[in-house]
Amino acid sequence: SPDLPWGAKLPHILADPTLQAISSRVGHSSAQVVLRWQVQRGVGVIPKSVIQTELSDNLGVWGWELSKEDMELVDGLETGVRKIVPIIKMADGSVQIRDETDENYPFGFVEGEQ
């Protein structure tokens, strides 16, 4: 992905063994577990997909909750690495991290500084 400027090959979050174990235990997909985790944290979620089955699956986050223990397991998956860092090209041709100056941007990564 061009949004991975440091070239790291990161595993797909939905294949994470912790998420898969929770998914199996609660009877919902890994995607639903992640979306439910966000909803329970009070985060507004706008999932993206063009695949009809995934769009339908995303609606399955209602009518159930993750336990406190499962919420803590998902919380523990934080690595401090943002998988997708939106890079934008400015009118002058320069490239910058889109959200770098946003007050909610929590990552210290700056391209070229490692």
**Overall pLDDT score:** 81
Care to count the β-strands? 2
Low-confidence stretches: none
The H/E string reads: HHHHEE
Specify Rg, calculated over alpha carbons: 17 Å
Oligomerization state of this entry? single chain
Strand content: 5-15%
Write out the strand line-up for the largest beta sheet, numbering strands in chain order. Answer: 1-2
Major sheet summary line: 2 strands, antiparallel
Helix proportion range? 25-40%
Structural class: mainly alpha
Distance between the termini: 19 Å
Total of helices: 4
Overall spatial form: globular
Task: Report what the structure shows.
There is one protein chain. This protein has 114 residues and is mainly alpha-helical. The protein contains 4 helices and 2 strands. A two-stranded antiparallel sheet has the order 1-2. A hairpin with a 5-residue loop joins strand 1 and strand 2 (95-97). Helix 1 crosses helix 2. The chain is globular. The two termini are 19 Å apart. The model has no long low-confidence stretch (mean pLDDT 81).
